[in-house]
Amino acid sequence: MTSLQIVGRRSSHFTRIARIFAEELGLPYEVVPIYDMTAQDSSIYANNPALKLPILRSGEEVVFGTENICRALAGRAQKSVAVVWPEQLRGNVSRNAQELVWHCMSTQVQIVFGTAIAKLPADNLFFEKARLGYAGALGWLDAHVSDALNALPASRQLSMFEASLFCMIEHLHFRQTLPVEQYSNLEAFRKSFAERPSAQRTVYQFDVPPGKG
After folding, report:
1. What's the rounded Cα separation, in Å, for the pair 8 and 70?
2. What is the DSSP letter of 32?
C-alpha cells in the first residue's frame, strides 16, 4: 500500500478529524507538519493553492480539505467501517448541528490566526462578532446535541458529526478561545468520545521544528 501522509498540524482540529478517521479505519499514516502558518508558498501546503490544511498526500496524488480526505481514507480502508456522512443526516436539527460545528471550527481558526498569529486587536468588531456567534452556536449545540446524537443510526461505528464535534470542543480546551465548561451536554459528549483509542492517539500538541525542541 502506498504510504499516506497527512500534511497539517497536530494542533489543528481540521487535521485531527482526518487523523481520527485514519485511526478508526486502520490506515497507517505519517503526519507531515506545517510549522509556519504565516507561510505563503503553496509548496509548504503540499501544493494546495488555497494555502490551507490539511492535505492528504500519497505519492504524487493529493487531496485537499478535511471532509475530502476522510472520504478518500474510507475508500482506501481494508476493513469495513459503518460511517455516517453529513449528507446522510436526517432532520433539521442534525443538519443544523453539523453546520454549526463547521462554523465553530472555522471561527476558531479566524480568531486564533487573527489575534494570536497576525497580532490584530482582539477587540476589533470582526473578532467581537465572531466570538458572539461562536458562543451562540455553542449554546445551541449544547441544547440540541442529545437530539442530534440520538438521530444517528445505532449501527454506526463513526460519523463525521461526532468526530468533528469532538475535535471542535477539545480544541476549545486546547486553545481556550472561549470558556466551554459551562456547556454540560457538550462536555459529557467530549469525555465519552475521548475514551476512544483514536482520540487518545491524536491528542493536540504543537509541532516543534527540528532542532528547536
Report:
1. 14
2. E
pLDDT tens sequence across 163-172:
999 999 999 9
pLDDT of residue 213: 63
Distance CA 151, CA 34 (A): 37
Q: Which amino acid is at 144?
A: H
* Residues with Cβ within 8 Å of residue 82, at least 6 apart in sequence: 153, 155, 156, 157, 158
For each successive 10 residues of the chain (213 residues), what is the average pLDDT?
87 98 97 96 97 97 98 93 96 98 98 96 97 98 98 97 98 94 97 98 96 74
Angle at the Cα of 62 from the Cα atoms of 20 and 165, rounded to 5 degrees? 25
| Three-point CA angle 115, 117, 123, nearest 5° | 10
How far apart CA 115 and CA 124 sit, in angstroms, is: 10
Side chain identity at residue 135, one-letter code? A
pTM for this one? 0.97
Nearest to 158 by CA among 193, 188, 124: 193
Q: Assign 6 to helix, strand or coil.
A: strand
Distance CA 1, CA 172 (A): 36
pLDDT computed for residue 2 by the predictor: 52
Separation in Å, CA 188 to CA 139, 143, 167, 176, 184? 14, 12, 14, 18, 6
